[in-house]
Amino acid sequence: MRERKRISRGKILALMALFALVAGAIVPFVGMRTIGLQSILCPNNGSPDSFIFWNIRIPRLLASSLAGAALAISGMAFQAMFRNPLATPFTLGVASGASLGAAIYVRLGLSFSLLGVSGLSFSAFLGALLSIALVYGLTQIRRNFTAATMLLAGVAMSFLFSSLILFIQYMSGFVHSFRILRWLMGSLENVGYQSVLEMLPFVVGGGLMILFLSQELNLLLTGEEIAHSRGVEVRWVKQGLFFATSLMVGGVVAICGPIGFVGMMIPHICRLMIGADHRWLAPATLLFGAAFLAICDTISRTLIAPVEIPVGVITALLGGPFFLWLLLRRESEKSLL
Amino acid sequence: MTDPIIRICDYSFCLGGKAILQHISLTLERGEYLSIIGPNGAGKTTLLKCLDGIYQKGSGAIEIKGRPLEGYSRRDLAKLVSYVPQADGGSFPFTVKEFVLMGRYPYLSPFSSVRRQDKEAVFSALDLTGTAELGDRYLDTLSGGERQKVFISAALAQGAEIILLDEPTAFLDPKHEEAIYRILGRVNRDSDATVISVTHDINHAVLVSRRILALKGGRVVFCGPSGDVIQQGVLQEIYEKSFQFLRHPETGRPFVVPELIL
């Protein structure tokens, strides 16, 4: 029996917010060049420290936080929708769909923008939306598709897209190929304020949609039939969630590349800390995902500085063992999701 | 003359190109207790799901309180009809109170806080099923019988007048089985709820329900007073096997006795 009522969820959430704030306040000072407090107060005095702080580290903090929050909450939504701990933007092929969209954009040498959104983000979003529509469409052909089957379809789709990306990369010239490769490794190396602004509408839009659907996520987690019976418009809610997650995954992948592990791990970690009620879990996942990726990114750029390790390597290195530890200290087998 | 609470008119339903329900017609008055029996794959569960609008686009008509099912929004329908599915072995990482409170979904708007009447509905539902002391336990830690009671509580908290149950006593020990039937009887009598329950337990179906509907191959093969089902001819037609009967020592009513296997 689990009795986890000692600390209220409000307090846990407040602690997580505090953690995210403290992480956000410390991270930009850490790096190959440690920055003192006095140099940031006058941003325009031309000192290199001030420049690094305001024009490199702050946008990087913002970008990594946005990406972490978006990937984490997308994973949370997928896990609830499919009632499966392995459902993530990656296992469902959404991330590779987004990657494929972006790769095609780069390969074709396109350059356009739509309503202020760059073509790259837009292509990644379309790729994400298309892949989720494909996976979802498969489930509509035969109504008795189980979540497990859908996951398998997603994995198959993911492999298909990945090989298409490799194909595109192989057929590209050196410049394009290198650009695609660098970006596929998942990195926050070259983000500036432009990238942050690029991601912002995607992440905020999708994130708000998911926060708004917290109650519905709770009910979907008890099973679609129960959700139906309780009055949830399951079809619309699922389509809304697909749209929101495609927005976020597309927006993030276009800028940072596919950063793995965040979408699977962070929701689980948060669920073990604050429980499965999405009215608490969703904001917790946003906060913790943001802080987690910001910290991982800091580690990735400082560990063997001046060389940067792709942030995806760090997320997996940190997250994997932590996740295993959480699995082992769990008391009940079934409480994973 | 008021409208019947449920009217099913020549309803047929296909799933994956296969006809699951064929020309079902049935009328239920408010406060009835109907048991649906029939062999596996007869379409019993499908009928429940169609009644709750989980499956849609069948031919024919289903009316709830004189209004076609399609005319209801999901939320409005949820205030009238509640479905207790078969335990699917899935994980429910919620406490009993959290889960039962989710039954109040049709009355809540996003971000709205829980009102007093919602809490009251939860407590009275837990009271009615005798699960109040389980309130802070996690669903995953409950026994099958306790879990079933909580599922019924959630359906009650939903405030529905029609409760659909899919094999509510499957996998339960005799004590919990009896407890579930008592709860359903109480709900049916005291709150005048209409209960439709799918079951394989013919004896209990006869005991607790006024009427029995038997499905076979998606068609109605029997529909009538529950006592009338306990006849060799009727049961043999439904299940394609013969049955033996004994009279209850107290009431003298016939019941099915288990077949000698060896």
Task: Describe the structure in your own words.
The complex is a heterodimer of chains A (337) and B (262). With 337 residues, chain A is mostly helical. Chain A contains 14 helices and two strands. Chain A has helices spanning 9-26, 37-41, 48-82, 94-107, 119-141, 147-171, 174-184, 193-212, 214-221, 224-230, 234-256, 262-274, 278-302, 311-329; strands at 113-114, 117-118. In chain A, helix 3 packs across helix 12 (262-274). Chain B is an alpha/beta fold and 262 residues long. In chain B, strand 9 and strand 10 form a beta hairpin. Chains A and B meet through helix 9 and helix 10 of A and helix 2, strand 6 and helix 3 of B.
Which SSEs are present, and which pair or pack?
The complex is a heterodimer of chains A (337) and B (262).
Chain A: H1 9-26, H2 37-41, H3 48-82, H4 94-107, E1 113-114, E2 117-118, H5 119-141, H6 147-171, H7 174-184, H8 193-212, H9 214-221, H10 224-230, H11 234-256, H12 262-274, H13 278-302, H14 311-329
Antiparallel strand pairs in A: 1-2
Chain B: E1 6-15, E2 18-28, E3 33-37, H1 44-51, E4 59-64, E5 67-68, H2 74-80, E6 81-84, H3 96-102, H4 116-128, H5 144-157, E7 162-166, H6 174-190, E8 194-198, H7 202-208, E9 211-216, E10 219-225, H8 232-239, E11 244-247, E12 254-257
Parallel strand pairs in B: 3-8, 3-9, 6-7, 7-8
Antiparallel strand pairs in B: 1-2, 1-4, 4-5, 9-10, 11-12
Helix pairs in contact in B: 3-5, 4-5, 5-6
Q: Based on the structure, what is the oligomeric state of the protein chains?
A: heterodimer
Number of separate strands of chain A:
2
Work out the radius of gyration of chain B.
19 Å
Give me the secondary-structure category of chain B: alpha/beta
User: Structural class of the secondary structure composition of chain A?
Assistant: mainly alpha
Question: How would you write the strand order of the largest sheet of chain A?
Answer: 1-2
Overall 3D shape of chain B: globular
Unreliable spans of chain A are none
Mean pLDDT of chain B: 89
Estimate percent helicity of chain B. 25-40%
